[in-house]
Amino acid sequence: MVDKKPTFDEMNRADGSPRDTYARYSQWLENQDTARLNAKSAEAEALFRLTGITFNVYGMEEADERLIPFDLVPRIISANEWRTLAKGIEQRVRALNAFLYDIYHNQEIIRAGRLPAEMIANNEAFLPQMIGVAPPGNVYTHIVGTDLVRTGPDEFFVLEDNARTPSGVSYMLENRETMLHMFPELFSQIKVQPVSQYPRALRRSLRACAPPACTGMPTVAVLTPGIHNSAYYEHAFLADQMDAELVEGHDLRVVDGRVAMRTTNGYEPIDVLYRRVDDDFLDPLNFNPDSMLGVPGIMDIYRAGGITIANAPGTGISDDKAIYSYMPDIVEFYTGEKALLKNVPTWRCSEPEALKYVLDNLPELVVKEVHGSGGYGMLVGPAASKKEIEDFRAKLIAKPAGYIAQPTLALSTVPILTEAGLAPRHVDLRPYVLVSPDGIDITPGGLTRVALNEGSLIVNSSQGGGTKDTWVLEE
């Protein structure tokens, strides 16, 4: 996609001089030989191949398992910028948890007229099975990945709230390990906040959410759909890093009112299950009866306080892109404060006037499915053909409530290394947030995703994007 709007270059000013945040890195970069950097780039690819850092792409005719494209020019954020972002992220995550508790209990936000009742009642992500259920510490979103985009020096927007099963954190960790391995001298010259504590923090956070039935040191396990899942590498990586068991549905069963996993000593209870299986497949007795991925009866044990499921079932409603459009109201309702981080302006196509505007302006807008993810099922108007626009117009008219629309933002750029040298590419940022009764822990930085094709605004790895190491400078 070609973006013809002015863009904010995060590394360089308009005159070509480096911004303060990049000053030391730019000085180092000027003394590097291009051939050495290209060799390091090839070395990084070899490291990723050796480690097995892959993801799967669905719906492609060619081989579906690919290496994660990695660019070795870091994305750098100042300590002051990060402090501002972290405050806004924490406020938003607190509001999300309060919102989830409320909609599964008294629904005060609906009674107050701040959110239309049909946004919940007609929402396929709302789980009636969660009504009246209060997880330990009232934590619903144990792990959150908040997608941010930047359009100017002090202009950040939240693009999405990933509160269901956010992925990508293993790439954040491996990107940093790769950079430390290849350029140790850089980290002695530039003080960067570490990210390596994430697995320990995740384990500590999950253990702090142990259910009432737990009487000793909580046992944590990671539930994966299996090796064919697009994020299986990450599931295995996190289980290993947390010293937790990696399990599939067939490894688990209900024993004496607990969910237990098969071991060499028989079945042993699990206290906290970090699930990477969608709600619909979690329990064939309560959801999809054909599911082979979940555990029959696990929802009954969960409701009785016998196990903690992270993230809680039903959190997907906060990922709904129509609910997203109400987030400024949600933040204010539950915190009493104005949202520190801005939303992208959003048209809800379920509303007749908004639908008319969207249909009249499709070539200029980005249109997304309300439950879509991964860059699938969306229209990027400025990059679409006339036929694609007309085909999407028919979808909108047939099911307007299934879509929202947003303006095409001029996303900021960070250089990538190409064979011809450095070239600007658009980026977004997914910081990772851990929530427990003990508080909120935000890893400094996160996963920077980069659109590797010139002018493209689509950063998803499933759509041809890559990743960068994200540096948050120390004070």
TrEMBL record:
A UniProt-annotated Pfam family: CP_ATPgrasp_2
InterPro entries: ATP-dep_Glu-Cys_Ligase-2 (IPR051680), CP_ATPgrasp_2 (IPR025841), UCP005522 (IPR016450)
Stretch forming the signal peptide: none
SUPFAM superfamilies hit by this protein: Glutathione synthetase ATP-binding domain-like
Residue ranges of domain Circularly permuted ATP-grasp type in the record: 74-451
Superkingdom, natural source: Bacteria
Residues spanning the membrane: none
Protein name, entry field: Circularly permuted type 2 ATP-grasp protein
Source organism of the structure: Harenicola maris
